[in-house]
Design a protein that fits this description.
102 residues; mainly alpha; 2 strands
């Protein structure tokens, strides 16, 4: 890892700040696959679990950002004259059901 790579890492997660959602998700799936396959030492299993936690946090941040963008668009649309559709109906209740559980 170069000094530039270290500088661009999120210190809270030790995952590169530029890691996209899809890359984090794919790596997380591989971590889970390796853990479920077993056969690793305790130390290797713990290191993989920690990496999985870091990757899950990256995915959560990306998803939270996407959720905020969608909610912002819905809110802006509701402010338009003549708007009469419920956002929860537009998205099949997806956001309203998730928001109530958080």
């Amino acid at each position: 890892m170069t000094d530039q790579d270290r500088a661009s890492q999120d210190p809270a997660t030790k995952v590169p700040a530029t890691l996209g959602y899809e890359a984090a998700r794919d790596e997380l799936a591989e971590v889970v696959r390796r853990l479920e396959a077993g056969g690793l030492s305790l130390e290797d299993s713990l290191a993989l679990w920690e990496r999985g936690e870091q990757l899950a946090a990256v995915c959560e941040r990306h998803l939270a950002g996407a959720r905020e963008r969608i909610e912002s668009v819905i809110a802006a649309r509701e402010q338009q004259p003549g708007h009469n559709r419920s956002p929860s109906k537009d998205l099949g209740g997806l956001w309203s059901s998730q928001s109530s559980g958080s």
